[in-house]
Amino acid sequence: MLAFIIRRGLLSLLILFLAVSLLFGMIHIAPGDPASVMLGPRATPELKAEFARRMGLDQPLVMQLGTFYARLAHGDLGVDPFSERKVSEIVFEQLPFTLILVLTAIGGASLVGIPLGCFSAIRRNSLLDRLTAVMSVAFIAIPSFVVALYLLLWLAVSLRWFPAIGAGETGNYADQARHLVLPAVALGLGWVGYIARLVRSSMLEVMEENHIRTARAFGLPERTIIVHYALRIALLPTVTILGMGIGSMLSGALFAEIVFSRPGIGKLLYEAVLTRNYPIVMGAVLVTTGFFVFSTLVSDVVNAMLDPRLRERPGE
Amino acid sequence: MNCKVGQPLPNLPRRKFLHTSSLALLGLAGGGIPGISRAVGGDVLHIRNYQDLSSLDPVSFVSSAEGMVMTAIFQNLLQFRSDGSWDTQPDAAEYFEQLDATRYAFRLKPGQMFTNGHGEMTADDVKFSFERVVDPSMHALNLPDMGPFSHVEVHDRYSGVLVLRSPYAAFIPVAVAGPTGVILSRHAVTAGGGRFTTNPPACSGPYRFKSWQAQRKTVLERNPLWPAGKAPFSQIHVYAMTDEKAAEMAFEAGQLDCARISVESTGPFERDMPPGGSIRILPSGRNYWLGMNRENSALADIRIRQAIQYAIDAQAVVEAAWFGLAPVSTGPIPEGMIGHRERSLIPPAGNPQKARQLLTDAGVTLPLRLRLDVNNAALELTAVQVMQWSLKKVGIEVEIRAQDSSTFLTIGREAVNNRWRDVQLFMQSFTGMADPYYSLTWFSSSQLGIWNWERFSNEEFDRLNQRAIETTDPSERSKMYRHMQDLMEASGCYRFITNGVMPQIYRNTIEPAFRADGYAMLRNIRPAAFRSRS
After folding, report:
1. CA distances from residue A103 to A38, A95, A196 in whole angstroms, order as listed
2. Are the beta carbons of B485 and B346 closer than 8 angstroms?
3. Distance CA A151, CA B93 (A)
4. pLDDT under 70: residue ranges of chain A
5. Which of B215, B238, B243, B419 to mutate to test the interface with A (most CBs of A within 10 A)?
6. In 10 A of CB A312, how many CB atoms?
7. Are residues B204 and B337 in the same domain?
8. Count of domains in chain B?
9. CB within 8 A of A173, min separation 6: which ones?
10. E strands along B376-493, which residues?
11. Nearest Cα to A136, choosing from A160, A120, A159, A156?
């Protein structure tokens, strides 16, 4: 198992390096001028040159990339040329808001979606199964930002049960939880349907397999068969998808952060791209890509734990 | 209330629908849930800022978003009045007078204290603050605001003279009363290392800085050392909200007392304002125009450029993109500022017949195909589509090339690449400052290939631009600026569209205060009953 984790870890580092280098090139190829965006007409040629110097843009691209990795090796992501604050400080200040949002959304979606999918498979073709099917497709089909807007209009604007903006007062966990409800529901609702459909189809497949029939033949209770034998295997593709899902939610969190005026890394990255604030873009991209690669690694490891065959196969 | 109601549109009964549906669902659920969202009101002001702060230091702040907070926690020698004009009144100064073309005398009010134990404000603090901005080692982003400022002569504890190297008519509105001219405590800033960002070491305004949470909010609190009495609110919470729609919903949800909203939401809010709310449609001080690159071969003939000027129905553009709320502008200098023109050379609705005649005279084979670059914001895209329609009527077919703001801002820049040669038509905008110099100087020859993308070059314009900034007589200046706008328009390089509007919504529990360009003045906002109490 340890060798498997090391192999996967090294592969993840390589993926991270390639992804970040590629994004670095893409960001710098796009035309744009941060000083003009932020300062408007007051951006004199001297100021623009000063900004280019602060961002290291006066160096060749390869040198810039080299400098970025050299700094990174020392844990330094550079300095924001506008606020003159450390990029690492700015990024890690925002990251917890996005992580808590994404984990709440995906956690909530799993808590609802897995039992729903499981129940649908067990009660195949029942009224609940059909209802779940319809609702799942509806949840998947409705764009998250539409859900977000209507939740906001209904529960925050009209009824005022939940706050419309912000992330809650620092240190007041109840307030923070209230501020988390609407964005997490908006972000995770589509995933409820997706997870439910996935678990249902996996369960149906697994329930037809020989070892389940054998377990039934041995007279094991149906509950034990479902929970300990069928669901364990049926969850494999779901775990893989959840790993990917966390990554996709990191980008999907952007709309929730904008609509609900929440702080977060998505909003930070979006605004930095618009203003061509390259140090912030690189810092945020590195952290989000790192998190995505890490979540995929974790899902691989969990899969390997659930199914020992995966770690025993050569080349995996 | 300064409101203009646009054409009535069908009313969408969204609120009624939401109430009914939610009540029905509540009934189905069999019970109610107590209201848990926090409502605004009381002694705390909740207000939207259009972007997050990056620095409150006069050498490194970048926008009006910071300026709004800075003028609440610091003092200037003079401050803008909150009556919608660009007039100034004393702030920290009890006396301020222009001695001659390059010298301004001041005397501070005694007893004005900096917070955090940094002592009384003195003339030395004024010297430190002004000279710090022009100190080359500071690399101040706002250095241009100071113009030819040289130094401060300190005469005694409270008085001194600000000295310029040459006359600079924009000195008071831009440097003395603007955020670049806020007075810092030498002791506090020096002790803190000489620079700061979002953690000012000492304040002196009616409010003092309490906290800043990135991308969330800035909290100001009443400054107990403020000598001019008790500030109206115990706290001001300034929320960083880039999205106007989010701000509108937050206002409807009762979480904001005051917010700038989008132009397209103005009509719906006027028709269906939440109870206890009001709206003001203020001038924005932004300048929108269609520019034409005279050095592009397709537009080299002035008759073609003039045909485009006459073909565009600017009235229709503002009706569509600004919902008729903004008037057609007569030039970059907005109403209420020195040099504003009463009328432009081209009529607001244009003259398509004259446009066709000019194209015929120029020997143009129709259809004439041109490109139009624009920032991909919804408002600008709507505006250029109407222009496209206007131009098509006279035989000019326009291809719209939308791009994100950062890319768009490089298209006319010689230093970036050669793309400026291909630029033909473009819709551009920028927000001016408190002086007409900053509305027009970008069109001078020295700005060719920097901000002057039209490649407009006129010796008389350049000469007047220099003379006007050195002239202190307002009527003389005004005459010069009006003529400069005539020269711009006569070149055929510009079709002025509008100076825009800034709609602000607020609760009737407050008395809002806005600057002449529509930005909120935090220190002047009061609870509605405050005036009668005090």
Report:
1. 34, 12, 18
2. no
3. 51
4. 38, 41-42, 310-316
5. B215
6. 10
7. no
8. 2
9. none
10. 396-403, 425-431
11. A120
Residue whose tokens read 């300026």: B67
Structure tokens at B120: 């009384």
Look at residue B249 and tell me if it is in a domain.
Answer: no
The C-alpha atoms of residue B466 and residue B471 are separated, in whole angstroms, by 9
CA dihedral B371, B377, B380, B383 (to 10 degrees): 90
CA distance linking residue B342 with residue B50, whole number of Å: 31
Hey, are the CB atoms on A164 and B142 less than 8 Å from each other?
Answer: no
Structure tokens at B428: 């551009």
Three-state secondary-structure class, residue B334: coil
Q: Is A132 on the interface with B (CB under 8 A)?
A: no
B101 lies in the same domain as B52: yes
Would you say B197 and B54 are in contact if contact means Cβ atoms under 8 Å apart? Answer: yes
What six digits make up the tokens of A88? 């690492």
What per-residue confidence (pLDDT) applies to A292?
84
Is residue B199 located within the same domain as residue B215? yes
Place of tokens 């998250």: A144
- Name residues 64-83 of chain A within 8 A of B (Cβ): 80, 82-83
Distance from CA of A55 to the nearest CA of B (A): 14
Calculate the alpha carbon distances from B362 to B213, B297, B301 in Å. 60, 13, 7
User: What domains does chain A contain, in order, with CATH numbers?
Assistant: 2-73 (no CATH), 94-311 (1.10.3720.10)
Assign residue B484 the CATH number of its domain.
3.10.105.10
Range of the domain at B202: 45-229+503-527
Given CB atoms, is A28 within the 8 Å cutoff of chain B? no
Q: What was the pLDDT predicted at A62?
A: 86
pLDDT for res B8: 40
Residues of chain B with pLDDT under 70: 1-42, 530-534
